[in-house]
Amino acid sequence: MKIKTLLIGGVTLLASILPAKAQEAFDASVTWAMGCPVDAISGVSTTDYLTPSFTKGSEVSQKNESATFMEETYTHFLVTTPLATTDINRSISFKITPTGTFKPSSISYQFANQGWGDGRYTLVVECGNYNKVLKDKVTPIRDNQTSTKPYDEINLSGITATPEAPIIFTLYFQSKNDNTSNRPYIMRNFIVNGVATAEVGELPEKPEIPDGAVVAPLGAGTYYDLSQAISNGVATVGTDIGNTYKGTSIDFPFYLENEASIFFYLEQGAQQDSNGTLLISLDGNKIGEHEVEITGGWSNYTAVSVIRMENLASGKHVVTVARDDSRCTEHYAGNWRISLHAEDVYGHEPINLNLGTYVNGIRAENGGANAGNIRNGASAEYRVYIQEAGAYELNLGIKKYGEGTCKVSVKEEGIEASFDMTPQARSYSDIRHISLGDIKTPGIKTLRLEFTAPPETNYIANYDNLNLVRTGDISGIADVETAEVVAVEYYNLQGVRVEAGACGALIRVSTLADGSRKADKVIVR
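Request: output the structure for the sequence above.
Response:
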């Protein structure tokens, strides 16, 4: 991740008399340099006074990581496009939030049907109450039918974005009819130019970040660069942390460009001779523990702990993972590797199938558009972040093959449910809704799917659009909210009770006079 640098050109005073903090206007732009996996797309601004972001709909996936046309690299989208409608699930959006104001003057982009695709697109701009269709049901050129780059530029006027009303460009993928085929598109370099205004000195000073240092958050599926880890010399630091003998303690320094909340993600594997507990601290304060598990292989990293680190200041921080020698009675405490992720990595609407842990042949297919190759004994696990307790249901679309049963569980909540996987239709339109009941505490949860099939069945089914949906409040909470509290306990986000004086993101469980219990997520400092 590169540190953005403030570039100001063509400065013009907006008032004849300078206020305490002078307003300045300057040319500015944001570029989303595409040609990478969809989940890695991010914008870069020529100024810190503009913050870009990128989102995609649930039915937009990756065909391949990239496509090459006329020696340029494009992001390769794959979308099911049944109708020429503006369906948010079949769209991508480019958003700019200014610190002061931003008046866009033009946008440009390179967009095409890939191969023999016949898709269409609609491009819409929104800013507060302003809403305009810039392109309506346009059929882009095909990349194999032209010797000219598929370039388009649109002039803009009369739009002013503010912090309360950011500007959003949304591109909807469409087709000309109700054909439900997957359509491939390629896209490159979405660029917005304009004029920004801001008060000089209103931004916090950026921290100094050494070259090569780890800057959080890391991308989905990206691990901490262990060359930056600091070992006490006991454990071996290589492609992972190994040889975790007695006395092992590792520091993982990282930097934040801005204040943020980050997930610390520890994966651990062990084949034998390992047990005990790992102590995890942030900047010298304990934030959690990890129980070491035998996972069947040193590189089988299926024992996972995830800890949310709330509202960290910009600058340097250090996570320390140390073996608790009082509880590690074997030679080792497993092998480790870690990451530092943003909250959206663990989103559950929809769940990113590419980040699942799969056993016995099941896999993410078509760039993560679906999971397939499901046989008897297969299983899949996903880590999801539940922001709010409540009643939840699991939804997924099922397609083709044979018959079988799926058992769904949420390990941390003791939830289990089963349903018939046999498709009722020959397409993913066979949507199942499975009630999971109450998820009583927020935090990272382990969603596990286990598949069973009759002996004569080879494959069971494929599934897509896997997501969790909150359907209501926990039953009974409303009746006890005003009751007398007689006892309070605190737990970490993994459900482990913590000792008095613990700090950080915790779950407070209040016992009421009638014996009922209520859970709230709190920050204890």
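The two ends are 30 Å apart (CA to CA).
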